[in-house]
């Protein structure tokens, strides 16, 4: 029994073929999945998939590229999402200084907020780190 701990099953090209993808994965021994969000909209999409499939779980977080667009109520929104039984991690969070799509200080601020949530809730974190 294997678990894919980092997949973005909400991507249109995957979501549209999800039954086939899950079947192929099962044939290869992968039968559990953590759908990893990159922003709060994605977290809701992951949660919808998790609610429809017993072998999919979800995470909630803001990727460093999306840090510049993080809502002012980020902490409260992630905390609310983490109350759902299918939410198993905070992520995808971290720092990415390779592309600097969001400036470094904004990335750090958003990262710290999300780490605080994970620590307070004693939840695992799904990290993204590149050139940071």
From TrEMBL:
GO-annotated molecular function: hydrolase activity, acting on ester bonds
Pfam families: TatD_DNase
InterPro entries assigned: Metal_Hydrolase, TatD-like
CDD domains cross-referenced by the UniProt entry: TatD_DNAse (cd01310)
Cellular-component GO terms for this entry: cytosol
Name used for this protein in its record: Hydrolase TatD
Organism lineage: unclassified sequences, metagenomes, ecological metagenomes
